[in-house]
Amino acid sequence: MSDIVEKTLTALPGLFLQSQLGGGPAAAKASFSSRLGSLVRSITLLTSKHEEEKLIQQELSNLKVTVSAPTTTLKMMKECMVRLAYCEMLGYDASFGYIHAIKLAQQGNLFEKRVGYLAVSLFLHENHELLLLLVNTVIKDLQSTNLVEVCMALTVISQIFPREMIPAVLPLIEDKLQHSKEIIRRKAVLALYKFHLIAPNQVQHIHIKFRKALCDRDSLLTRSVDWTPTAQGFQGCDVEADRQAFGQENASGYKDLTGSFVTILKQVVGGKLPVDFNYHSVPAPWLQIQLLRILGLLGKDDRRTSELMYDVLDESLRRAELNHNVTYAILFECVHTVYSIYPKSELLEKAAKCIGKFVLSPKINLKYLGLKALTYVIQQDPSLALQHQMTIIECLDHSDPIIKRETLELLNRITNAQNVTVIVQKMLEYLHQSKEEYIIVNLVGKIAELAEKYAPDNAWFIQTMNAVFSVGGDAMHPDIPNNFLRLLAEGFDDEAEDHQLRLYAVQSYLTLLDVENAFYPQRFLQVMSWVLGEYSYLLDKETPDEVISKLYKLLMNNSISAETKAWLIAAVTKLTPQVHSSHTVEKLIQEFTTSLDTCLRQQAFELKHLQENVDLMKSVLPVGKSCDDMMVDASLSFLDGFVAEGLCQGAAPYKPHHQRQEEKLSQEKVLNFEPYGLSFSSSGFTGRQSPAGISLGSDASGNSAETGLKETNSLKLEGIKKLWGKEGYLPKKESTTRDGVDALPLPQETAALENVDQPVTKKDPPPALTPSREEKEKQLLASSLFVGLGSESTINLLGKADTVCHKFRRKSKTKETKSGEPTSAHPNSLSNASYEEDYYLDTLQDIGDKELKKISLDSELLDSESFTELHMVEKPSDCNLPRPSLFADNNLEIFHPSQSPGASVANEVSLAAALLEDPTEHMHSPVIEVCSNETISASSYKIWKDDCLLMVWSVTNKSGSELKSANVEIAPTEKFKITEQLESCLPVIEAESTNIFQHSVQMENPSTEGTLSGFINYQKMDSHSVQLEFSVTLSLLDFIRPLKISTEDFGKLWLSFANDVKQNVKMSASQAALPSVLKTLQHKLRLHVVDMIGTEGLLACQLLPSRPCLLHFRVHADVLVLWLRSSCSALPDYLLSQCQRVVEGS
Amino acid sequence: MMRFMLLFSRQGKLRLQKWYLATSDKERKKMVRELMQVVLARKPKMCSFLEWRDLKVVYKRYASLYFCCAIEGQDNELITLELIHRYVELLDKYFGSVCELDIIFNFEKAYFILDEFLMGGDVQDTSKKSVLKAIEQADLLQEVGVGRG
């Protein structure tokens, strides 16, 4: 039949000319339909576009008058609308008629209404404002009893309907799903489907209706012809399945329907449908394809679901035998489905055969689809490509570019290191022939990717990339040049190879630039200028001066954009230090310091100033160091003076953006503790951190995530190795830390002002910065490794990292004390596996073990070494310590202020001992409950460690359910420096169990007492988080440790200290002798007795971390003369009062 | 889902256009112009499928008239080709040996038929009989309406 159509249409041009003679049915109709006919005829008679335009404008102005005239009847209006629509189709503006189209739809009789609706759907688009005027008409028509009106309304709804008005018609349309007429139901389902597409969340509930319609279907199918509405129901499911497949939502939502779909498909394939739905004797092909696609989506990666459909797929493959397009359409869909679902070898075999049929078909359409199918399955089954390799080769030189392109796509998928040259060659050939931008951009990207992945040698790589840049031009994806430059800059493992590649690039660009009148895209020129600027020094023959003059020539070219010129000047700037004095550079400076482009002018000025100071220029622009990471003071600490000045003058302190926002959000929770937890431990300058949570200085004011982001963003040209294999960020980072190179990427802001900032940014890093940088690196690494573990995890990680450092420090100390000790006896406490997760879990136990070992080692050694001191150590009565002798070595004279009954302490200590590092190593205070409520109780005790005071919080969950996000936070105070220690790794406290949290505390400013307050956060299952506040008091004595020095050292130090306090204290009768006083002091205040000479005693101590204080005692009858000296002004005063209390009180 | 359908003559005159996805007027014109150029430049024996921008284009020429559909990535090209053919069959049946002039002079009818066949970019009714029945019904009612009016 199509042949007939074809014949008729072929005869058309002839008919067309004779139309005025009235021959043929078309002409008869044309003469009948009056005005449009004459318009069309007059247009066809015209010869030029200009005449047509004139005629249509004339027509439109006539129409304009007619439509707005009040005398125009609706019938005339209908006719006008048709003509208007025709003019619009020809590309002329007929917007004046839009409102009349709406009116016509509203007021006309059926015939007129139909044209009105059509005109509206042709004229307006979904977001047109006039569309709102149509809503009422649509609602009215939906409620009409006239079938045709309802149909028209539904049609227009599915064509254009304002999204926000959907609720107004939704119930009406849902009603129509139960309509007695099939056509109405069908249109209603499609309208709903359309709503699903444009506003899925407004019609979520209709999925249930679709599903219901589907389930009804099963029974209906066999007895009734009324199946089509449900076919559309499938589409709803289809979309749903789509969404679920891609959105990773609960895909099982529709899996239960698989059985129904399979049954339906079986019935359709089996020819159970009425013949009406056959298309060229194939039963319901549209429905079959729809079903196959749904099955493909449902069976993806799902073995059980897939197994349900194997039979029916097999049947479909078998049945589709007819040599007709529509059978092939079904076959193609079938093959697609077979390769999408969980594989079954028999089916795959059959599908592969089908693909073969397609590929080998003489029909070009089928061949094309065959190639497409091959492309789709090639990764699963590369052998198929081998089977059809001859066809593929033929297709590669096919006259139809579409076939060629598909073949290239196929080849792209099977490229490897061996065939890359050929394939890229073919792709480049195609590239040179095509003109369509979309294709070029697409293909260029693929070539660049292949070249980077599989390049066999340098020359090939550079040449291919040259082709990519010159053809791809400025339309290509900016990643391509960026990646290329990064690749050049970072190089590979082989230094010589890098050198060669760079040299080759430089040479090839110089050759290209020598070509007269050659045109290169701006992007390519930018790439060239960067490479020449960086790597011209590798050249032997040509001097930098020659390169500069080439660049200068380009700069003078008018066709070059300002952006490229900026790149060019940057390149010249880099080359300038390598020449002694260049005339060209002078010319350039002269030329561009007066440039109208401010950016170029600035660069020229920079160059000018740099040139005046050759040494600076050389240090700022080192040769061949593009990839060496620059040290940049990211914190802009050099501005601190400026900031301080501003603050002094009353400026408001800077708050980072997120903090401002947070403050705005929660008025009562002004303090944002979390980020500061981070910066306290990570940076060396906590002093600059204001405890109020406001950063006065510039360092580390953001939280770590923010910093991390900034630093990664900045890696435009230097930094991360991305290409040539999948080495990511991580290995690179590791290697930099290992090499001790402080890899600090250029922060974004600085990068933007690169040239301006260079003198500042390239100077050597202040040494103080280094440790904190390393910390940051680690954090960055950690956050990239553990990303997504939740907010608590950052803190945990940090705590861990800190522990590592801490342990390292300690280890070295132990080594010092025991020089003769074989190192192998020490377990390496700086765990190599510090970043491994299991470490994370084992840490607690681990530490305990190690400490124990250490202690036992110590004790052996000690017995001989510190013999002299032993007599001074007294076994404390109220403490259960197994080996008091240990403490002599650890410089920790024992003092226990606790008055609580020993038994209960012992009990609680043993509990703590099980969970914590061995508490027997250090003294600790009794356990005190700090706070509690019905759910938890928290107690704490202090461990006086050598280098800090360790606060241990043990939080017990008394409830029967587990608690989440449990965390102890300490409010920052001026007095103390708090570092979160190794934390209980699990933020979850299980029912009736205890978690331990630790903070190491050091005193920042000496004072007799300070309060440490904080709160415990936790979250009960399914409820809000709860905060429980607590506070404990710390006294100065908690931070006093003995200072072991000799008498000579004491003498030297004594003279060097300026702050001195002297006082007479009357001693109590009981301890009138000096030795007993000293002993008491030694124990109660943790002082070290340096020497005792006659009536004089010398003692030394230090306030953690390292503020020494020396004490001199002399006894006169019952008066004790105390004389204290220290480097710290406040310390002697405080200590004196403590001594006084001890001496007088006891 | 079908994005749009175009009918244009070999001379590059647009005869019918139906858009199933909201597209601005300017963009429409640009797309029509570009696509017509691409399709008209193709030789008779070439493949009926194109990859154009991010869409797949399926076209077929009947006499001097090109029928051209743009579909999305996962849609089936061959069935779209058959869809075009079914539309031509419907036109042929309705007009009785359809020719380009029928479509030019009665383009609104061609739209009505298309609307009964496709709705919102998907096949509404695959049965030739029922589509034609729906059209005839509407035509009949129209005449009644006209008679009344």
Task: Please characterize this protein's 3D structure.
- The complex is a heterodimer of chains A (1146) and B (149).
- Chain A has 1146 residues and is an alpha+beta fold.
- Chain A is 56% helix and 10% strand.
- In chain A, the strands form four sheets. In chain A, strands 3, 4, 5, 6, 8 and 9 form a six-stranded antiparallel sheet that branches. In chain A, strands 12, 13, 14, 15, 16 and 17 form a six-stranded antiparallel sheet that branches. In chain A, strands 7-10-11 form a three-stranded antiparallel sheet, with no helix packed on it.
- In chain A, a hairpin with a 4-residue loop joins strand 10 (1009-1020) and strand 11 (1025-1035).
- Residues 7-32, 217-251, 675-771 and 778-920 of chain A have low confidence and may be disordered.
- With 149 residues, chain B is of the alpha+beta class.
- Chain B is built from five helices and seven strands; from the N terminus they run ββαβββαααββα.
- In chain B, the strands form two sheets. In chain B, strands 2-1-5-4-3 form a five-stranded antiparallel sheet, sandwiched between helices. In chain B, strands 6-7 form a two-stranded antiparallel ribbon.
- Chains A and B meet through helix 1, helix 2, helix 3, helix 4 and helix 6 of A and strand 2, helix 1, strand 3, helix 2 and helix 3 of B.
- Chain A: It is found in: Endomembrane system.
The count of strands of chain A amounts to 17
Overall, the morphology of chain B is globular
> Of all protein chain pairs, which has the greatest interface, and how many residues does each chain bring to it?
A-B, 88 and 78 residues
Structural class, from helix and strand content of chain B? alpha+beta
Strand content of chain A: 5-15%
Through-space gap between termini of chain A: 120 Å
Spatial ordering of strands, largest sheet of chain B: 2-1-5-4-3
- Proportion of β residues of chain B? 15-25%
Total of helices of chain B: 5
The shape of chain A, in one word, is: extended
> Gyration radius of chain B, to the nearest Å?
16 Å
